[in-house]
């Protein structure tokens, strides 16, 4: 079985989606599936230093990279993050090679790469599956609403309704797919996490690295600094927390202007000595912040799965999230963290509760680690995915795929 994963970017700056694609394909290959990825060389404002137009090894995974769209973006009013959406070389390669694969698995909606791949797959009668990645949640659809409505009416809804299967990571995401008017079959398969190697005395090492006092609890915000993730809400809540703490904002900023706004808010709330911007953390630095912190907070507006939350639980961190993180029901049921409304007062109360109670933090962390091991384990998840691929291929071979 040959499977091609199509994703606009594999840059580490893109966060969870990049990690998911790489880990998925890595595990598929370990279970005997000939899986590959095609993507552009996008890397935020820069490009990845990778071979173009040829199969290469990237992070232990076979990937075909193609040059991203590179016209002056200011003239086109597309914005820096949209530059990877178009690639003529990518399109030509897909047209020439899509029939080499038994099934395509596309990542992202409202993106050129996925749109081109699904259209070409339909033309060549190759079955494809689609991952909505939370992009059909009401909050997500409300962003650039007019453009998404037009794109959805003209292109995306048709692509979804011609898919052999739509992958969802939670029941809430599946409900969002149905509400968008999608009639294709859906399958709820969670994402997985790969716990890193244990770091001895991680808390002590982390405190030394960032100059944090020995007995000061560390709160971790580990995600892209973006208004969707609501770091400003976390800062407002922390202004009302009386217990000592130090906050690590670990992630790449959405833009310099956004980080400046956060820095101004930090000064406004008198938190200047209690907050550190770490920037993007990967590899050992990522494992250190996960293993060395005392609790994790993500008060997002909307998350279909939030791989960072699962990674935090896998590292044994108690988590505080909002109901808009769609794995919230599982976390609440497993007593792996606190689910609170996205407002300063309840968020501050939850944080203060955990800061004052080390035993509760420890118990929630253990419960979260057990949940991550049992529910978000890549080998078991990929076994389910292989069964789904085989069903899609069997359906297609019987002539049941949609034209």
Strand order of the largest sheet: 5-6-2-1-7-8-9-10
Q: How many helices does DSSP assign?
A: 16
Largest sheet: 8 strands, mixed
The separation of the N and C termini measures: 22 Å
CATH top-level class of the largest domain? Alpha Beta
> Which geometry do the CA atoms define?
globular
Mean pLDDT: 91
List the domain count as a whole number: 2
What is the CATH architecture term of the largest domain?
A: 3-Layer(aba) Sandwich
Helix content: 40-55%
Indicate the radius of gyration in whole angstroms.
21 Å
Structural class by helix and strand composition: alpha/beta
Number of strands: 16
The CATH topology of the largest domain is what?
Rossmann fold
CATH superfamily of the largest domain: Glycogen Phosphorylase B
Share of β-strand residues: 15-25%
Low-confidence stretches: 73-83
Explain how this protein is built.
This protein is of the alpha/beta class. The protein has 2 domains: 2-192 and 377-397, Glycogen Phosphorylase B (Rossmann fold, 3-Layer(aba) Sandwich); 202-375, 3-Layer(aba) Sandwich (Rossmann fold). It has helices at residues 16-30, 73-76, 88-97, 112-123, 138-142, 145-161, 171-179, 202-210, 231-238, 256-268, 283-292, 307-314, 328-334, 344-356, 358-375, 378-397, and strands spanning 2-9, 34-40, 42-43, 46-47, 55-58, 61-66, 103-107, 128-131, 165-168, 186-188, 218-222, 246-250, 275-277, 295-298, 319-321, 337-339. The strands form 3 sheets. It has an 8-stranded mixed sheet, sandwiched between helices. A 6-stranded parallel sheet has the order 13-12-11-14-15-16, with helices on both faces. The chain has a two-stranded antiparallel sheet with strand order 3-4. Residues 73-83 have low confidence and may be disordered.
């Amino acid at each position: 079985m040959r499977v091609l994963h199509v994703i606009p970017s594999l840059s580490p700056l893109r966060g969870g989606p990049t990690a998911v694609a790489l880990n998925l394909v890595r595990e598929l290959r370990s279970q005997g599936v000939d899986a590959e990825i095609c993507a552009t060389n996008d890397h935020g404002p820069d490009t990845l230093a990778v071979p173009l137009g040829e199969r290469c090894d990237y992070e232990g995974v076979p990937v075909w990279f193609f040059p991203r769209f590179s016209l002056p973006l200011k003239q086109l009013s597309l914005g820096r993050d949209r530059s990877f959406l178009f690639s003529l070389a990518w399109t030509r390669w897909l047209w020439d090679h899509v029939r080499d694969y038994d099934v395509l698995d596309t990542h992202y909606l409202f993106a050129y790469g996925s749109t081109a791949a699904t259209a070409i797959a339909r033309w060549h009668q190759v079955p494809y599956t689609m991952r909505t990645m939370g992009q059909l949640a009401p909050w997500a659809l409300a962003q650039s609403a007019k453009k998404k409505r037009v794109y959805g009416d003209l292109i995306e809804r048709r692509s979804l309704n011609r898919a052999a299967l739509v992958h969802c990571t939670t029941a809430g995401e599946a409900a969002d797919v149905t509400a968008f008017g999608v009639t294709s079959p859906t399958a709820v398969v969670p994402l997985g996490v790969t716990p890193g190697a244990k770091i001895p005395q991680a808390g002590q090492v982390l405190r030394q690295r960032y100059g944090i006092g020995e007995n000061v609890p560390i709160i971790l915000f580990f995600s892209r600094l973006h208004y969707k993730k609501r770091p400003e809400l976390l800062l407002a809540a922390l202004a009302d927390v009386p217990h000592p703490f130090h906050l690590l904002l670990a992630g790449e900023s959405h833009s310099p202007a956004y980080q400046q706004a956060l820095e101004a808010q930090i000064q406004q709330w008198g938190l200047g000595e209690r907050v550190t911007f770490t920037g993007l953390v990967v590899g050992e630095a990522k494992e250190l912040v996960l293993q060395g912190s005392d609790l994790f907070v993500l008060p997002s507006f909307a998350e279909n799965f939030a791989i960072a939350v699962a990674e935090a639980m896998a590292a044994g961190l108690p988590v505080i999230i909002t109901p808009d993180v769609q794995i919230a029901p599982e976390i609440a049921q497993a007593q792996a963290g606190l689910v609170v409304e996205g407002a300063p007062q309840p968020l501050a109360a939850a944080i203060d509760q955990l800061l004052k109670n080390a035993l509760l933090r420890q118990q929630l962390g253990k419960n979260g680690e057990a949940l991550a091991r049992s529910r978000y384990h890549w080998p078991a998840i990929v076994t389910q995915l292989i069964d789904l691929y085989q069903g899609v291929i069997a359906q297609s071979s019987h002539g049941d795929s949609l034209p």
